[in-house]
Amino acid sequence: MSDLEHYYRILELEPGATLEEVNQAYKDLVFVWHPDRIPKDNLRLQQKAQDKLKAINEAREKLRSLKTKHQTTHHSPPPQQEKPSQTIQKPPKQNSDLSGKDYSRANLSNKDLSGRNLSYANLSGANLSDTFMHKVNLRGADLSEANLFRANLLLADLREANLRAANLIGADLSGADLRGADLTGARIRSGERLLVKLVGTNLAGAIMPDGSIFQ
């Protein structure tokens, strides 16, 4: 097996998968194997998760590098197009400060916003379905009517955030800080069934969907 085939196999992809498929597979596998999803006292699984993440990161970087090099060599875009192409492919820095930015009604589905500072940002009505937002800072952010279907908000800071009428079905809020957040009218249930992960979530003082205050 060639190194290239090996990297595709790590990401559970068929050889020749597109760059978009590589990125999506990477996000899916990081979601599955992130150490924060593994019990801290299970050292064997914690080590396995660390090894998996290392292999997944290496596979993505190798494939992205090869595909970018292949595109540059075989397509030779005009000089005026080269810079925008590189800008699109280069992911934002992990420490990007996006506090106070206006993303109302923006389509951010499937994006990787983990670790970003989006405190007090306007995300009202934004599409954040399947978005990876591990440890994101959303303190005081406006997420009213936002679609957070299956969003990964592990350990996110959502203190005083406005989540009124937001769709939280399938979202993972494990370990998130929701102190003082407003969830009035937010969708978290189907009938009597709770469809949001709230393991270890801090809800002290939060306004719940029914208008009651969590004690």
List keywords for this structure.
215 residues, Helix Hairpins, 31% helix
Quick recap:
This protein is mainly α and 215 residues long. The protein folds into two domains: 3-89, Helix Hairpins (Orthogonal Bundle); 91-215, E3 ubiquitin-protein ligase SopA (Pectate Lyase C-like, 3 Solenoid).
Please describe what this structure looks like.
The protein is mostly helical and 215 residues long. Helices cover 31% and strands 2% of the residues. The protein has 2 domains: 3-89, DnaJ domain (Helix Hairpins), CATH 1.10.287.110; 91-215, E3 ubiquitin-protein ligase SopA (Pectate Lyase C-like). The chain contains 4 helices and 2 strands. α1 packs across α3 (43-75) and α2 (19-33) packs antiparallel against α3. The longest helix is centred in the N-terminal third of the chain and has 33 residues, at 43-75. 32% of the residues are buried.
